[in-house]
Structures are given as structure tokens and as C-alpha cells.
Amino acid sequence: MERGKMAELESLETAAEHERILREIESTDTACIGPTLRSVYDGEEHGRFMEKLEARIRNHDREIEKMCNFHYQGFVDSITELLKVRGEAQKLKNQVTDTNRKLQNEGKELIIAMEELKQCRLQQRNISATVDKLTLCLPVLEMYSKLREQMKSKRHYPALKTLEHLEHTYLPQVSHYRFCKIMVDNIPKLREEIKEVSMSDLKDFLESIRKHSDKIGETAMKQAQQQRNLDSIVSQHPRISGGKKSKKEVCASSDLEVKNTSPMSEQDSGILDVEDEDEDEEVPGAQDLVDFSPVYRCLHIYSVLGARETFESYYRKQRRKQARLVLQPPSNMHETLDGYRKYFNQIVGFFVVEDHILHTTQGLVNRAYIDELWEMALSKTIAALRTHSSYCSDPSLVLDLKNLIVLFADTLQGYGFPVNQLFDMLLEIQDQYSETLLKKWSGVFRNILDSDNYSPIPVTNEEVYKKIVGQFPFQDAELEKQPFPKKFPFSEFVPKVYNQIKEFIYACLKFSEDLHLSSTEVDDMIRKSTNLLLTRTLSNCLQNVIKRKNVGLTELVQIIINTTHLEKSCKFLEEFITNITNVLPETVHTTKLYGTTTFKDARHAAEEEIYTNLNQKIDQFLQLADYDWMAMEPGSKASDYLVDLIGFLRSTFAVFTHLPGDVDVHSTMSGKVAQTACMSACKHLSTSLMQLLLEAEVRQLTLGALQQFNLDVEECEQFARSGPVPGFQGDTLQLAFIDLRQLLDLFIQWDWSTYLADYGQPTCKYLRVNPTTALILLEKMRDTSRKNNVFAQFRKNERDKQKLIDTVAKQLRSLINSHHS
């Protein structure tokens, strides 16, 4: 039973499921029926479902048949009505066909006219559209054509402006056309081409100004020179200054002209041709020689293209390279002034261009960049000038170089560059200039001194006298009163040396011009240089002349005279310097001239040389002495050599009468020099004779020889008493021979008792006789006595004399020993 119930329940559930599936199939779209059918096939009741499905289909067919049978009569009636309408419709169709045929026949011409009108309207519309499009395209094409024309004629800045209008104004309106796309693609290429061409023009400009920097600088320095000349004229004649333009006005007008020059200028880069003009015509401005339009164009082009920084960097880099080339001096620059001039011209030309660029462009170069370049240029220029000027030995070239440096500095100072270091460097060159002057004047002085005849200058008429007095400040009332012909006391080298000293002072003054130095500084510089000339150059030349081997006593005497007069002229040199510098010698810190010391030293050297030469001459005469130290009897007169020597001394001291004796300044000069020379000669003669008597080679001497020697000494004493040089008081000159006189008197008179008794007392008759000297001479006479056989018949007397000599010698030794103890 239970199984039966279970089977019954299952069949009921299956039936309900099949019913649900059928309803779902009926209500579901056929496209989505797949899952429903899959559930049927997935089950196990497929056969029963099919039976169920067929039963449902049959039920639906029966319902459809019932519905058709219900509506069939109405369908038949409708068909009957439709058949009736078909006949009427056929009639209507025929009528419509006829009407249409008639209408077609009647409207054929209208259709043709309408077609023609349609075509006309279409053409009119196309033409209008074409005109509109061409109206938009033609300006583009015209602008592009203008652009190509400007590019062809190298008007790059206008071309760039045209390109900007074309790109931003015209092309956007016709951007859908193919030719516009081609133009748009070409615009970057055109911009790059403009950049390249403008940069090429800039490079040509830079190369051109590099080659022509010296021309630009030369013109700028000519302008500066003209301005200096104008300022000099105006300072002398202030009233005529109204008709000239100042340098600043000239530069301002030049700058205005350049500023008014449009960057659209059609001129190419380079230096404008300027023909050589006469000196009377105005020199063109330095900026007038240069066409700066390539720089302006290139700057504007790069600014518009947004590459201004690139352009500025390139320009500054190239100009720095050019600056280094300009500042590199040629190796032979020091040989000629033109070498320095070309070097300065290039530097000035470079900075004139940069200064103009600074003032006519906005930021292409700035003051810091210019100052940096100038600092580099200043250091390199000063280093080059120091090196090359050191090779220069010609003072004229150094002076020309100084003037050129001053012009160079003034030119650049006119453009606002600081040049103090250049003027400081000129003070260094001034020391070198002084050295070259000293070398030159050393040769001048040597030539003057070598060519001088060292004789007083003879004058035969008033004209010659005034000429010499005009050359050298000399005043002597006694000489003026003397009739012609007469002689100046000095030789020709005095006025020549004096004038050369003045020329040297003028040469020093020339260097100080335009150095912006105060009068005190100029005065100090001239005085220091003049002191070097006097104390070093002239002093050395005078010393060399004095020390020459072949210089004679007459020349030395004349040198003393000359230096005395030159010494007196030093005060006139002081006045001369004061007059040209307007600085009084009493001013604080004023350097004094050392000329007095120089000439005094020279005079003293000449005096010493006179004394030395006299002594050398005396020695030469003494070398001729030929004494017979064994002579038994003296001669009747003095030795020949001594007579000649005394004659020489007399003639020599006669020369000293020419020495200067100015009452005011040198009242004792003549007596002093002559007396000193005479006393020196007598002392030297006395000393030499004493040495001759005591020399070791004279081992023996006789009383006769000693008496002959006494005759010579008496000749010397006679010379001393004769007063060869005035001014000696009493027997002062004879005292030079007192040692010899007392020694000879002691031996000839054989007054040993007096000598030995009074020795050491102030009133001793033989106070000047030294015991040692007496012993030496006595030993020589004792040896002679021992070996002499002439007194053989008087042996007792000989023995007595020998004993006396031995006794005296013993006592002399005792005196010597006691003196030493």
C-alpha cells in the first residue's frame, strides 16, 4: 500500500513539474527556451513529458479550429467585398495612369528648367563657397610668398615677424587644408634657418670687428687726442670754446644716431668703409665705423624665438675669446712704437665696441661683464707692458711709450673705464725711464769729458764771452774788466755739463707731463732723478777721468777748477728746478740736490790723485839715484837726479797758481791745495830719502858718501826755504826734512855726547833722531871702518875711533832696550 502511495505521489509531482515546464514554454521566448528543455532532458521522465506535450498541442489545435470556425463567415464577406473593390481600384488605377501620363508630358519642360535651375543654384553655391575659401587662403599664400621673398632678400627680422603673423593669425583659419599642413610643418625649419642665417651674420660681424679693432681703436684714440688738444686750447683761450663739441656731446650724438637705427636695417654686418680724411677734417666717431645692425637683428631674432640666453652666452663667450687674442702682445712689440700703438689700438677698439653694445642693447652685456673683462685686460696689459718695456733702452722710445699709454688711458677713461692702475704703472716705468736717461747721459758725459782739452776757455770778443756766460752762470768782475783776449778759469766741459744737466731735467719733466701729478710730486721726482745723475752718473764719469792712467797734473788741476765752478752752480740748478715746478725749496719734504757733495768728492779725488801722482813722479826720479856709498870724498854739488827732481817740483807747483781763489767762497782753496800738495811731496821725498839711506842693500857707507847725501838734503831744504808755494808760515815746509837734517848733523858733526846726554829731553838738539835709526846707520859706518885700509898708518887713531863707535853703539842699544822696557 505504501509503495502504491509513494508511486502515486511521485507521479503527481512529475505531472506538476511537466505542467510547469509547459507553461514556461508557452510563456517564454523561443530564444530562451534552451534551459527549460535542458531540465526536461536532464530528468528521467522524458517519454511522459513528450506525451504531455503532444496532448497540449492537440488541445491548442482544437481551440484554433474552433476560433477559425467562429470567424469564417466574416472572412468570406470580407473577401467578397475585396473582390468588388478590386474592380473599382483597377478603374482608379487606369485613371491615375492616364492622369500621370498627361502630367508627365506637361511637366517635362518644367523638370528640365528645374534641373537647370538646380545646377545653377549648385554652381552658385560652389562658387560662393570657393570665393569664401579663397578669401581665407589668399592672405595666407600672400604672407607665405612675402615670407619667402624676405628670406631671399635676407631680411630676417621682418621675415620672422611675418612668420609669427602667418602662424598665429592666418594658418589657424585654414588649418584643414593640406597645403596649410605643409606650411605648418615648414615653420620650425624656417625658424631654424632664420636662426642659422642670423648667427652666420653675427659671426661675420664678430670676425670683422676682430680684424678692424685696431682701426676702431686708432679712431677712438685720435678723437681722444683731438679732445685733449681742444681742452688745451680752451684752457689757454676760454672764449673760443663755444664753436666746438665736447667729446661727450660727440659720443652722445653718435649714440643717438645708432639708437635711431632700426634693427630692421637692411645693411649687412661689417665695418663701414671710411676714406682717409685730411687732418683738418673732423675724425669720424669710432661708432660711426661700425654697423651694429647684425648684432641688433640677431638679438631681436633670438629674443623673439625665446633663445635670448643662448645668444647672450654665445656672444659673451666669443668676445671673451677675442679679448684674450687681443690682449696677447706680439713678441717683438718692444722693438718699435708702432708695435705698442697697434696693441693699444686693438684693446681700445675692443672696449669701444663693448661699451657701445652695453649702452645700445638691453642686457646683451652688463656692467659686471664689462668690468670683469676690463679687470682681465688691465692685469694682462700691465703685465705685458712691464715685460716689454723692460727691454727698452732708448729713453726717447720710453717717453713716446709713456705718451702713448697716457693717451690709451685717457681714451678708455673717456668711456668710463678706471685707469688708475695704468698711471701707477707709469710711475714704475718712470724709474726705468730714469735709468735709461742715466745710461744715455753717462755716454754724453763721457764724450764731453773725453773730448775736453782741460784748458781754460779763451775768448777773443764780447759775443763769445756773452755766449759762454749765457750757457753757464758765471760772474767775475775782475775778468769782465780785463781786455780781450782773455780766458775763463774753467774748460769747455763746465758749460757743456751744466747744460746737459738742464737737458736731463727737461727730459725728466717731459715724462711727468699728463700723469696727473701734483707740482710737489713732479718736483720730488725731478730732484731725485737729478740727484742720481749727479751722485752716480756724473760722479762715476769724473772719477773715471781722474783715475785714468794717462791723466796729467795739469788736467787734474783743471778738473779741480771745473768742479769748483760746477759746485757753485748747484744753487742755480736749484732755482732752475724751482722755476719749472713752482715748488719752493723751503717747502716741507722738498728733496735737496746733492750736487755740492758730488763735486766736492770729485775735487777731493782729484786732489788725492795729484798727491799720488806727485809721489809717483818723485819715486821715478829716486829710481835714478846712484850713490857711491863707499866714496871717500863728497862731490862739489848735489846729485843730478835730485836737481832734476827739484826742477820738476818747482815747475809743477807753478801750475797751482791757476787754482780758483774766489774771495767769497774759495778764498783758501788755492793755498790749501797747493800747500797740501807741496807738503805731501816734501814729506814723501824726505821719507823716501831716509829709506834710501837705511835700506838693507846698503851694507856699508862712508862719511864721504854721507856728506854727499847731505848735499842733496841741503838742496831739498833750499827748495823748501824758497817758498815754492806761498802761504807757509816760517820754516813749516822745512820741517818735512827735520828728521834727515838732525840725523845727518849728528853723524857729520859726530856729536854723540850731546845726543846721548840730552836724549829724551824736550829741548834735545837731536830730538827727531830715533836711536834705532842711528844704530842702523852707525853699524854700516863701523863695518866700513873695520875693512878700510886707508888709515893703516894711523892705526892708533883708527882703533880709538872704532872703540868710540863701539861705545856709542853700546849706549844706543842701551837706550833702545830701556825704551822698549
UniProtKB/TrEMBL annotation:
- The residue stretches assigned to a coiled coil in this entry are 50-120
May I have one GO cellular component term?
exocyst
Alphabetically ordered keywords of this record: Coiled coil, Exocytosis, Transport
Record bears the keyword Coiled coil: yes
Q: State where composition is biased (Polar residues).
A: 226-235, 259-268
Pfam families in the record, alphabetically? EXOC6_Sec15_N, Sec15_C
Exocyst complex subunit EXOC6/Sec15 C-terminal domain span: 421-780
Q: Where does the record place the Exocyst complex component EXOC6/Sec15 N-terminal domain?
A: 52-221
Q: What biological processes does GO assign it?
A: Golgi to plasma membrane transport; intracellular protein transport; vesicle tethering involved in exocytosis
Q: Where is this region: Disordered?
A: 226-269
Family per similarity comment: Belongs to the SEC15 family.
Free-text function comment from the UniProt entry: Component of the exocyst complex involved in the docking of exocytic vesicles with fusion sites on the plasma membrane.
The name of this protein is: Exocyst complex component
Tell me what organism the protein belongs to. Answer: Falco tinnunculus
